[in-house]
Every structure is written in structure tokens, then in C-alpha cells.
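Input sequence (229 aa), recorded before submission:
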Amino acid sequence: MNEKIPETSDGKSAESRPSILKIAAIAVAIGAIAGAGGIYATGMLSGNAGGTETACAAAIETGASLKPLLTGEVAAMAPRTQANDLSGLTFNDGDGNAITLADTGGKPRLVNLWATWCAPCRAEMPALDALQAEKGGDDFEVVAISVDGGDDAKPRAFFEEIGIETLGFYHDPTIGAFNTMKKEGLAFGLPVTVLVDSQNCVVANMNGPAEWASEDAYRLIDAVKAKNE
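Predicted structure, C-alpha cell format:
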């Protein structure tokens, strides 16, 4: 399970890192309490439905072919059965410049929305960093986007605190990326993760945390990379 986006946050860091399963259980209760705090979509991606269906047909086929690999630590990842083109998803790069997901394209990517106040997000961030270290390169990238409000200080401090070494820094203080994913039927809380192909079309998605530094995750990413060759 995952955490709803709350209206306010105390910004406190956890003193210890509980297991993913324990964090997920806690998030169930938090989500029930904080339901009224969810952010609702205010816009949608450009492009007509027919064009998106055509452009993303290959992504849906890829998702279906990967279904046997969506087990174990990545069992919550579901193949997408409807077309979602996230080319216009907007956020800031490490220099504070506005970019779109298409600007990171040309390769499959695992796009993760997270925040420092989200306990499951904090717990899985080291695993996402490990996934980038193990599988990242010209043919794959983990695009982890902080949706913390305000400037970059808090999410950058968290990266430093837990020793993130390989993830690029991306930030969306407007929460527009979350709004877009919610409108597309992809996001219900945090963390949310989508696997997109080289054309920015969604192959599979999941709400809630996962153990990305695992053989299950590595096999999935290897298969996605192979299909992009």
C-alpha cells in the first residue's frame, strides 16, 4: 500500500529504517486517515486518445509479455492495458530547469514519485539507488522525482543523509507530475512507480513500495532493456 499526499507534514526523519513490509502495513492506516488530503488532478497530457492508442500499442504488448516476470518483490507491478503517453510529464532537473519526461527518453525508464515525508518512499530509496547503480546507463534509467513542496533543500538533504550515489536529482514542487499520473489513472498516493518504454509510454505501473534491489527487479529490467534493443 501507499501513502496519500497529506496537506501538511512535520518533515521529521525516521530514526530507523523499518522493513518494506512493515512500512507498507503502516501506510494502510495512514492512507485511511489521510484520504481527505489527496491531491486531485487539474489537467491532462496533450494529444488525442486515438493517437495515444496507436503510439503506445507496443508498450501494452510489452507489458503483456512481461507478466510472467511480475512476481516476488515486483508482484505488485501490473501490466498496463490502456494507453498512457507520459511524454509531457513535467518536472525540474538537477539545475532547476523545467524538462519533460521526453527529454530523458530514448531508453526504458523506471519513473518513481516520492517525498521526504512519505515513509514507504524513504524506505525504498536506497533500493532505487542500487537499481540505478546495477542497471542504469545509456539503455536504462531510474527517474526518481521528489514532489516535496518548496525548494530543493529538503530532498537534497535526504539524498545526502542516506548516501544516494547514482540517482539523478529531479524535483516537482508543484506536484503537477502526481496530478497528471492521477488523471491518467496511474497514481493514488505515494510512492507511485511506472515503467515506461523508450517512447514514454507506460508498460506497467504500481502504487506502493517494492524491493528494487532484488533479483526479481533485475530480471524485469533486463527483459525490458532486451526488448528495446
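Checked by second reader. The two ends are 34 Å apart (CA to CA).
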